[in-house]
Amino acid sequence: MEDSPDFLSREEKEFVVTVQEKFHEELAARKAQGKAYPCLLGSVALARILRAAEGNVEKACEWFQALLRTLSDPATDELVQDALSRFGNDSHIINASMLPHHEAISDFYHAELCAPLLSPDGDMVMYLPLVDLDRDGILEHLDWDHWVKFSRACTVMQCAALDFLSRKNQRFARMILIVDLEGMSMEGVVHRTFARAHRRDVIDSFQQRVAAEIVTSVYVVNVPWAIANLFSLCKTFIPAKFLKKVRVLSSNALKDSSFVENCGGQEQLSELFASRKGLVSSNSQRHESQRLAFLDVWPDEEELQHIQRLREKFAEQLQVREANGTAWPCFMSDVAMARVLRGNEGYLSEATNWFQKFLTKMDKWGVDEIARDVTAKMAQAERGSLTMLPHAEEVGRHFRCVFSAPRLTPAGDVIWYLPLSDFDRQGLVDQVEWKHWEEFVRAMIVLRAAEAQKLSQAQHRLAKCVTILDLHGSGIGTTGVPKVESFDEPNQKNMKFMRQIVIDILGPVYVLNAPWVAVKAFNWFKSLVPERFSRKVILLDGDGTYDDDFVEMVGEAQLKHLLATRIGLLSGETDADAGECSIGAGESLNKCRDLKCGETIAWSFTVESGDADGWLGVSDIVFSAKMMFHPDFNREEVEEEGQGTLALEETTVQASNGQVTGKYTAARDGVVTLCWSNEHSRMRTKGVQFQIDLQR
Fold first, then answer.
1. What number does CATH give the domain 74-283?
2. Which GO cellular component terms, listed alphabetically, does the Swiss-Prot or TrEMBL entry include (predicted)?
């Protein structure tokens, strides 16, 4: 094995010997095959690994073992050999023209991989103008595998160049990266789809496994004011070891003497800045399907062509499913395929990657069995409900929500009302078998997809689910929702299931009753981030009743109904059909029950006399019963605002009236809300005994 250079420290030299002894067989075999690449497996590279592990020998050995596993892949080994053959061994200079597929990629990417002059310390300088990284063009027009090979080969060449410089100058050479944001908008800086794909296929699966401690500093220059301020805010949350490598400079970067000196001087920087080509502005012609990514319109002819291409890539698997009856429309219809495309911002390569993983997870999670049950139930119902789910009664004692509100939004989207005061996570852990909770949640997710498919077919548009998250009574403060570790960590598996099985079904999330400070902070933060990241979460003051747009979307009567469904399971309340209740001054008792066509609900109650009746008059309660119908999509007419709600009874009942009874038989599916209101009283609590009977 090679001797360690003199500039390595004693600890680093000892680590080199440790690795060479511990992995002697693997390294000897590679040397015999001509694959003991010095820039990745040599003594300098090993010392870099120890530095990256902050001197922890055990962690460094684990990292090296992972590197060997990465190189054991024949395709990776072939790529490394090809990249090193293109680089040569007599210079540190590298440029993009050396890399595979450069000719095709040059229309969408330009960067100075190694500036002519080194830093005063002898480090390489790389210049990346973001305006010359046309991420849309790469995703739309290039074979993604070509970009991955190009990027991985670049990393290998950088390791080789730095290894050459280190040995030549007898010091650890690293790289200074200049990221130039000139010409980029706030929206253009962040590209979620490209970033996700690049991190998955280049950074996480390759760069972080083969390149250790090769970057000494990152300068982000020509930064818009908003981003600079956002970075200053985020510094609080970034680990110091990462933060010390990053400096954010405004447009006067050339006036920063330390930056100019470290990056090769004024003349070199001016030439680098002058090399910008503006590939993004000249090439970026976003595909129509990307424009549709946040819309709900039915797939047009062009998008259907992309869907057909997606189908062709999975023709064999889809044919098998068609034959055995498991080509569920909510996952494999054209509408579902459109969701896959739009959920990946119209990029076919990313849609293909997502759908391939989806098919694998379908088998892993046993989704076909869930879909079979859910699809059959949705075929018989206008709208999804929690009663369709397995273990609904058991789970319902600790988790309640309005899965699908009776009325849709004016656009035709379903509304999901989720009050966190009725999400008793500790109760679920203590009282519900965890497997039952998992089965409940997974069925709920598939049910959401099946319902979205049914609504979409009826409306000839891509219907989505608008979520209303109510924080009232949840215990949330400025630091967030109280943690229940025994629930939160295991439940991540359910969240993973949702991400892997459904896509582009959830619409905006409206958050009610958030702490005032959180609302203000969030609204300020939204002004600094791209719209596509902020539009899905909307924090409203109070219960949303003062926001005209929100009330119009939900419907005033329905919003009151949804807020009335809160029980308060976290505080020990239950949604019993019978009992005694003390209704505080200015408050009310509400009971909501789902009714299907032909079912009957009956009620009886008495108002109890109070101690203060002799002074303040007989105790009284304002009782009302209302039926809110589910819309019938088989009807041609469209219900206007205010229709679809039937007042069954509204009366003032005194203690002297004795028992009051009533009943109603539903002519259509819907929800009955029984309300005992004491809102008219500002001084007295009233007692009520009640009984509710459902005849199904």
1. 3.40.525.10
2. cytoplasm
User: What pLDDT is recorded for position 642?
Assistant: 44
pLDDT at 459 over 90: yes
Q: Do the bridges between strand 645-654 and strand 537-539 make them parallel or antiparallel, or are there none, so unpaired?
A: unpaired
Domain boundaries, the chain: 1-72, 74-283, 366-564, 576-695
How large is the angle between the packed helices 348-365 and 334-343, nearest 10 degrees?
120
Q: What pLDDT does 445 receive? A: 96
Contact yes or no for 90/79 (Cβ under 8 A): no
Instruction: Round to whole Å and give the CA distance between 645 and 407.
Output: 10
pLDDT at 59 over 60: yes
Q: Measured between alpha carbons, how far apart are the two ends of the chain, in Å?
A: 82
CA distance 321 to 161: 51
Pair 384, 403: CB distance under 8 Å: yes
- Label residue 644 exposed, middle or buried (CB < 10 Å: 0-12, 13-18, 19+): buried
For residue 29, count other CB atoms closer than 10 A to its CB.
Answer: 11
Higher confidence at residue 231 or residue 406?
406
345: left (phi over 0), alpha (psi -120 to 50) or beta: left
Q: For the structural domain made of 576-695, what CATH number should be given?
A: 2.60.120.680
Count the Cβ atoms, other than its own, within 10 Å of residue 26.
16
Q: Which CATH superfamily is domain 366-564 in?
A: CRAL-TRIO lipid binding domain (3.40.525.10)
Mean pLDDT for the chain overall? 87
Residue range 326-376, pLDDT digits in tens: 999 999 999 999 999 998 888 888 999 999 999 999 999 999 999 999 999
pLDDT on residue 295: 72
Contact 469, 420 (CB under 8 A): yes
Residue written as tokens 């023209």? 97
Q: Which helix (H) or strand (E) holds 664?
A: strand 660-665
